[in-house]
Amino acid sequence: MTAKAYQNRVIRWIDHRLPVFSYLDHELNEYPTPRNLNYFWNFGSLALVVLTVMMLTGIFLAMNYTPNADLAFSSVERIVRDVNYGWLLRYIHMNGASMFFIVVYIHIFRGLYYGSYKAPRELLWMLGVIILLLMMATAFMGYVLPWGQMSFWGATVITNLFSAIPVVGQHVVTWLWGGFAVDNPTLNRFFSLHYLLPFVIAAVVGLHIVALHQHGSNNPLGIDMKGKQDSIPFHPYYTVKDLFGTSVFLLIWSAFIFFDPNFFGSPDNYIPANPLSTPASIEPEWYFLPFYAILRSLPDKLAGVIAMFGAIAVLFVLPWLDTSPVRSGKFRPVFRVFFWLLLIDAVLLGVVGAHKPEGWWVLIGRLSTAWYFFHFIIVLPVLGKLERPLPLPTSIAQSVLKGGAATAAAGARMEKP
């Protein structure tokens, strides 16, 4: 839409000099979108909603938080008890971290199933993995800020992992701590980075959206749009669909906030940090547990750290590991079996990470870790060469209209006496 099409003179004047309204109209209104997207495509917009809420609540919380080792714990308690609606801000932010990871993990597995990482969307996928890494760093640093027992000892354990790096490991740990132990300089550094990184995430999300709109959204069929018959405008069709999905999601989020705000938290984090008292069990938040299980699956510390970071690094090269020319798992019957095995394996790794590394859990963790890497490094390249996929439809419109015709025919048969 050109600037002349706007009736409002002010908007027309601004858009002629800075075409922001034309850009938004094209990207959010007229933008052609595949006509067969299902509700799994809602999770991208949901992630943006959560990021926005987390940034806003984080800014207001930072106004009342004191990044000092002697005062941090009591400042968080003051936010909850004395600041007007501080309890609400904290519980939204605290549970929002879990909601963010739930949404992003579903978004990732949707991409894995429907092949959203394949050409020409490789860079789009890689930007998504970068967002995941930034989320993990931000969430870890945010978990340290309440300065409870689990915050303190979690920071101690995780930062000590870098000591496994040959030669420079201990120097890296000292640099992260800002001294020779987790203390006030560490808290200040983590607070600064926790405040900064969401803005970095927002910038990468912007690049992610630009890359998405360059070649358009993938779709459940995994085939490209072949004309206007395969697409519909983003507004009002998908804005309404996104609003409905967002409403349902906000109800679920609100249920945790108002009825069980500490569901995802640890009771130990309501005890002030004490360097002289180690908790009986130190474990990260649930969204880190699969990677924590991979870390502990190997007896050597350095090997465990490499495996943990390798579990994410392998996602960067996924577009080249999957050699199948077919994107969607809907037309790959053997791939579907291995996809569900991967999903079960990821859940199992999370369960293993929540248990102490002893007994059967050690063996299960090692087998689950081996299968995780086996899936990406061996199964996908070999399966792409050997599997015979089902025939693909010639167009999105053909598949959609064929399905509608079949439904109408079935309804007509049911109405016959």
TrEMBL record:
Known partners and oligomeric status: The main subunits of complex b-c1 are: cytochrome b, cytochrome c1 and the Rieske protein.
Gene Ontology CC terms: respiratory chain complex III
Note describing how the cofactor binds: Binds 2 heme groups non-covalently.
Protein keywords: Electron transport, Heme, Iron, Membrane, Metal-binding, Respiratory chain, Transmembrane, Transmembrane helix, Transport
Cytochrome b/b6 C-terminal region profile domain segment(s): 224-394
Chain residues that bind heme b b562: 93, 194
One Pfam family here: Cytochrom_B_C
Coiled-coil regions listed: none
Protein name: Cytochrome b
InterPro entries: Cyt_b/b6_C, Cyt_b/b6_C_sf, Cyt_b/b6_N, Cytb/b6-like_sf, Cytochrome_b, Cytochrome_b_C_euk/bac, Cytochrome_b_N_euk/bac, Di-haem_cyt_TM
Subcellular location per the Swiss-Prot or TrEMBL entry: Membrane
CDD domains: cytochrome_b_C (cd00290), Cytochrome_b_N (cd00284)
GO terms for MF: metal ion binding; oxidoreductase activity; quinol-cytochrome-c reductase activity
Membrane-crossing segments per the record: 39-66, 87-108, 123-145, 152-173, 193-213, 234-259, 302-321, 333-354, 360-383
Organism from which the protein derives: Aliidongia dinghuensis
Functional summary from the UniProt entry: Component of the ubiquinol-cytochrome c reductase complex (complex III or cytochrome b-c1 complex), which is a respiratory chain that generates an electrochemical potential coupled to ATP synthesis.
Domain Cytochrome b/b6 N-terminal region profile: 10-221
